Amino acid sequence: MLGKTTPNRMRGSRNNDAVHKRRVFVTVCATVLMLSLLSIYYSSFFNSRMHHVHGDGSSEEEREWEGASKVVRRPKPLADDLSMDDTGADKGEADLDVDTINLKEERPDETKRKADKYEADDDKDDSDERTDNDDQDASAEDPKDEEGIDEVTLKTFPVCDSRYSELIPCLDQSLQKQLKMRLNHSLMEHFERHCPPPQQRLNCLIPPPPNYQVPVKWPESRDEVWQANIPHTFLATNKSDQHWMELQGDKAIFPGGGTHFHDGADKYIANLGKMLGEADGDLSKAGKIRTVFDVGCGVASFGAFLLPLDIIAMSLAPNDVHQNQIQFALERGIPSMLGVLGTMRLPYPSKSFDLAHCSRCRIDWHKRDGILLLEVDRLLRPGGYFAWSSPAAYRETESDRQEWNEMTTLVRNMCWTEAAKEGQTVIWQKPLTSECYEERLPGTHPPLCSSVEDPDAAWGLPMKTCITPLTKYNEDSLEPWPQRLTAPSPRLQELGIAERTFETDTFVWQQRVQYYWKQLKINGQIAHNGVRNIMDMNANFGGFAAALKEQDVWIMNVVSPYGPNTLKMVYDRGLIGTLHDWCEAFSTYPRTYDVLHAWDVFSKVDERGCSIEDLLLEMDRVVRPWGIIIIRDNASMVNRVGKYLKGLRWDHWSKDDFEIVEDALSHGDEKILMARKRLWQPVESF
Ligand SMILES: *[C@@H]1O[C@H](CO)[C@@H](O)[C@H](O)[C@H]1NC(C)=O
Ligand SMILES: *[C@@H]1O[C@H](CO)[C@@H](O)[C@H](O)[C@H]1NC(C)=O
Ligand SMILES: *[C@@H]1O[C@H](CO)[C@@H](O)[C@H](O)[C@H]1NC(C)=O
C-alpha cells in the first residue's frame, strides 16, 4: 500500500530526495519499533507462563487441567514425526503445561456467576474455578470460531432424577415391571435386552452419584476404585470369604479373588496354562490363545489377570444379585459388558473366541437340551477351548454325578474332546473339522443347524438347539498374536473385501489415530485423567483399535448389525467387540468409557430415521465425566451436533486446531469434532 501511494504524494514535493530519505528513515524506525514491541510482548507472555508453572503450589495442576478444557490453540498441522511411543507421555505433560497455562492467561477474570441448574464440582476447594460457566466460555471463544459451528443452545436437556444415576435403559428391570412385561425368569429373560418404547425414554442427562470423582487411573484401577463412584457394598460383604472385593477407607479394593480362585486369579490362570501343556503356565500358548470369553465373570478379575499374558477377554455378566459387578469391572478398566445366556444369541459372530471360561458361573449347561453350551460352541473358533470349573467335575454327591454324566454325554455328542481335567476344572476342545459331525449316528442330538442360517447374525435372534456347522473357511488359519492383528483375516473373502482395501484401512487409521492421540496428549487428557476404556462406535475392520495396540488401553469395537458383519474380522485380528444398533442404548452402565469415537455414526443413525438427540444423550450416559467424544462425520452433521454441545454440558475441545487431513477414506466434506463432558452435580433443591 505504501508503495502505491508514496509516488503520488511525492510528485508535488519540492525536494524529492530529502523527502524520500526521510520516509525511508521513518519506515525503518517504525519497523524496528514494531519488532521490539513484539519481542517485548512475547517475552513477557512467556515469562508470565513460567511464573504460573512455578508459582502456584500443588493445586495448580488441577486448575490447569480445569482450564485445559478450553484450550483452543493454533492450528497444528499433521507433522511427520508424530510419535506414539511411551516417551511421548512426558512430552504430553510438557505440552500440557505450555498450552493450558497459556489458556489461563487468556481466560476472562472469573466472576461469581453460577449456572442456573448445576455447577461444576470437580474441585471443591477451588471455588474460583467452579464458577466458570458456559456463557463465559462462549464469549471467550466465539470470536475465534471460524469453522461455523454455532454453539447456540437449541435445546437444553434436563437432569434426570438422581435415582436414575445407574440407569441402563435396555436392561432396566423396574421398567419391565412398569410395563408388565411377561418374562420367564428361569430362562433369564429379565436379564436380556428390552428397550423402552419411545414414549418411555427418559430424555434427560444422567447425573453422577454424590461425591463422584475422576476414576482412579489404570493400572492402579485394576486393584482399587473410588467407593463413591459405585456406592454398592454387597459384593464386599456377601463375597468377603472369596476375596472379590474389600472396602478400605474411601476405596473398594480388589484382591483378585473369585468364587473358584480365592487365592488370586493369576495362580488359577497359570494352572489352566499348565493343564494345556505349557510348563511355564503361559495360557496364551505363545500367542495362539488371544480372545477369551468369560461368562459369569464377577468383577472380571479373571480378565484382569489375563492381560499380562497379552490375552484379551470379553467378560460378560448380567446385572443380577451380584450387584453392579460389570460396573466395577469397567471402573477398574477391564474389558466387559452386560449380557446373559438366556434365550437370544449373544451379540458376537461365530468363531470369535479362542477360549471360553466359566468358573462356578451357575449356568446349567446340561439343561434345555444344551442350548446354552451350543451358543458357546457357536462362539468358539474351531479347535477352541471351553474351561469349566464346577463342583460337578469332582464331587461325589448324586446330583453332581448326574450333572457330570449329562454334561459329558452332551459334549461328546457335540464332538468336543477332553483336553485336560484336574480337580474342579475340565477343559474341552471344539473340533477343528466337521469329520466327527459326519460320523455321528443319524438322529443324534443335538442336530446340525441348517446351513442356510447365517451363523454370524447375532442381533435379536433366538438361540437354537443345534450345532453351528463348520464351513470351508474353518481351517485353523489364523496367525498367532500379534501377527494376526495386521494379517488379512481369512474371512475377508466371505465379506467380499479385497486385501488391498483392508491394508489401506489399516494404514489410514494408523494416521488418523496418531492425530487423535496427539490431540489427547496436547490437551492433557492422557497425562491427567488417563485414557483406558475406549469405544469405537463404528469399528468397521477394527483399524482404529489396531492403531492403538501400543497404548495401555482397550477398545470395545462396535459394528452395526445392519451393515456387512465386519465384526468377525475384528475378532480374527485378535480384538474384541460387539454388534450394536445405535438407535438403542448400549449394554453398559453410565460413566464407563473414557473415549467414544463416532465415525459416520450420526449420519447412519439419521439415515435410519432414528434421533441424533437420543444418540447424544446415550453417549453422554456412557462417557465418563471428563471423557472425550470424537465425532467424525459429514460437515453438515457435525455442525448439527455442535449445536447440542452446550445443552449436553460438553466443552467444545478442538475447535480450531483440527485440520482434516484428506486420506483414502475421506468423503469430501468430512469434519471432526472433539468434545469433553464436564463433571457436574445436580444442584440440591432445598
Ligand atoms: C419358562 O420356561 C421354561 C422352560 O422353557 C418352561 O418350562 C416354563 O413353563 C416357563 N415359565 C413360564 C412362566 O412361562
Ligand atoms: C449372599 O447373597 C445371597 C443372595 O442374596 C444370599 O443367599 C447369601 O446368604 C449371602 N451370603 C452372605 C455370606 O451374605
Ligand atoms: C455423508 O456423506 C456420505 C459420503 O459422501 C454420503 O453417502 C452420506 O449420504 C452423507 N450423509 C449425510 C447425512 O449427509
TrEMBL record:
Looking at the record, which segments are called Disordered?
A: 52-152
Q: What is its main location?
A: membrane
Where in the cell is the protein located? Endomembrane system; Membrane
The UniProt entry lists membrane topology as:
Single-pass membrane protein; Single-pass type II membrane protein
Domain of life the protein comes from:
Eukaryota
Among CDD domains, the record links this protein to: AdoMet_MTases
The UniProt transmembrane annotation reads: 24-42
The EC number(s) attached to this protein equal 2.1.1.-
Tell me the keywords, alphabetical order: Glycoprotein, Membrane, Methyltransferase, Signal-anchor, Transferase, Transmembrane, Transmembrane helix
User: Where along the chain is composition biased (Basic and acidic residues)?
Assistant: 102-118
Its GO CC terms are: cytoplasm; endomembrane system; membrane
Which GO biological-process labels does this protein carry?
A: methylation
Q: Where is the composition biased (Acidic residues)?
A: 119-150
GO MF annotation, one? methyltransferase activity
The record's listing under InterPro entries reads:
Put_SAM_MeTrfase, SAM-dependent_MTases_sf
For this chain, the family text in UniProt reads: Belongs to the methyltransferase superfamily.
* Name this protein carries in UniProt: Methyltransferase
